[in-house]
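TODO from last week: model ABC-2 type transport system ATP-binding protein.
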Amino acid sequence: MGNEYIIEANHVSKKFKKAYAINDLSISVRKNSVYGLLGPNGAGKSTLLKMITGIVRPTSGEILFDNHPWTRKDLLNIGSLIESPPLYENLTAFENLKVRAALMGTGIDKCNEILQKMDLADTKNKKTSDFSLGMKQRLGIALALLNSPQLLVLDEPTNGLDPFGIEELRTMIRSFAESGISVIISSHILSEVQQVADDIGIIYNGSLLYQDNIDASENLEQLFMEIIRKERAS
């Protein structure tokens, strides 16, 4: 049964000083799917994603990656864009990719291939300090894809993007899942997640309140509000 999941978090908690950011939370992310992690700002989404990507360690509980306990070696198979893209502003997109590729032992061909894939091939001589926000986001995702990850983690990737940028990103995310990359995308913009996700999890106050697959006809906003209101009233 476990083999169908790329990530399973089993009863994980994360405590900062005396407060729990994540409290006894369990989620399962299917392989080759897009998992939408929903919740209001401050719900614990970023903390959970930082645990999955090894930035912070769980206080308790266990995270499995591809059916084995998560270790730092699994970072070779995880790409992530959490908060703002880690760019050298004085370098071009290609040079940014080349620096990362050198650290990872990846060839230049891969840099060119990913620039094409992320529609950045015509920026060869442009410094990233002159990039639009959407281009910076695309380059951040390009950097996350350099190691050909099995799992791609995107934390609020549509922040600051215009409608065209959001539409492009949505198409790319679907193409990743179709090419065999599992994607976790966190957002508080429900309509965006609904159009791209196969499964959703709703997180609030560090707890997972709901997890199921989702279809385009479902009223996600109504579902989300009902679950959050019920929790606030309890």
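Done. The domain at 2-233 is CATH 3.40.50.300 (Rossmann fold).
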